[in-house]
Amino acid sequence: MLALSSLFLVGPMGAGKSTLGRMLADLLDKTFVDSDRVIEERAGADIPWIFDLEGEPGFRVREIQVIDELTRQPDLVLATGGGAVVRPENRAALAGRGIVVYLRTSVPTQLARTSKDRNRPLLQKPDPRQILTDLLAAREPHYTAIADLTVDTDHIHPRALAEQIVQYYLEHHENA
Ligand SMILES: Nc1ncnc2c1ncn2[C@@H]1O[C@H](COP(=O)(O)OP(=O)(O)OP(=O)(O)O)[C@@H](O)[C@H]1O
Ligand SMILES: O=C(O)C1=C[C@@H](O)[C@@H](O)[C@H](O)C1
Ligand SMILES: [Mg+2]
Questions:
Q1: Does the Cβ of 19 fall within 6 Å of ligand 1?
Q2: Interface predicted TM-score (ipTM) of this complex, two decimals
């Protein structure tokens, strides 16, 4: 049984971390937080601006700070940025301080779910399919390594997925 009270959602862009995070917080009576949004609020700038001005390394420094703070708080559902797991500091914080759920999602599904949205600087290049394929190959071992639960998101409605995750939480959390 796990004594940890927060749920951390990890997975690639378009996995549904933000969508599911809101539903889970509602179902489990927890507070939803999205690390990308907190980074933007603190910087007073959106993610494309941060990438333009500071590059990905600058964004990752901000992300490490925010994830360190948020993972110390009880009773959150935290949607993390798709690339948070590339930094070992984030992997340690996520794995040690809450229940980690990996939303496994294929590249075609990621593409379909992110195609209308210009807010992801890493995809604003000529071949997003190749970029997502390379990112997933590099990151999948990290997502898997820290996950307590892995769920496939390709062919399931977010509501049904949220119910599966709630079921797991209720079975594995001692104070649920
Ligand atoms: N299981 C699902 N089935 C179908 N559509 C979904 C599912 N989960 C999310 N979506 C849709 O996919 C899009 C992307 O979802 P969302 O923004 O929650 O992903 P994310 O993991 O937070 O992405 P990012 O890392 O870029 O913030 C949204 O339009 C959402 O409605
Ligand atoms: O996959 C990534 O590296 C990113 C995903 C987004 O959630 C944001 O954190 C940012 O656009 C970087
Ligand atoms: Mg999101």
A1: yes
A2: 0.97
